[in-house]
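Thread title: Can someone regenerate the structure for this chain?

I was given the following input by a collaborator and told the matching structure tokens would be attached. They weren't. Posting the sequence so someone can regenerate them.
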Amino acid sequence: MTESTDTAPVSPGVLAAMVDSHREFLAFLERRLGDRALAEDILQSAFVRGIERAGQVRDDESIVAWFYRMLRNAVVDHWRKAGRGAKKLDALARELADEIEPPPEAKAQICGCVAPLLDTLKPEYAEALRRVELDGVAVKDFAEEAAITANNAGVRLFRARDALRKQVTRSCGTCAEHGCVDCCCEPKA
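Best answer:
Regenerated them for you:
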């Protein structure tokens, strides 16, 4: 195979070699990722990049060996990105698990319109808030109940709180800005 520039057209033989090895490439990725759908996504992206960069293949290597090197790099990139995301989610879960419970009298002063607003949220958000915020269940225990990871539970709680905050603002208006203490607002439909 001769070296060409990145913009040179890809020979039919190169394309045929890549397509003929599709199943082997997919199996290679699936073994390393443990998820067929993710493996298919990464393979599709790698095919696009491979076709664009096929001109980088040296005279002394085959297109298949070169493409496997691209796939190994794609797997490393995936796990590197996943690792960064997991670290952020772990930190969020630890932060949520370490939150201090407000005193009972503070809970009694919470705006009376907040509880009914829980029913306007996605069911999984409402359940997460009820179990963790109202029932006092630890985030990790809620995660086990819901059959999700602690990271996922932390993210779900973060999103649920944000969704509830938006609903309270829509319903209570300026009262929500001042903490809903001694609330006398009429919930809006």
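Confidence is low (pLDDT under 50) at residues 1-6.
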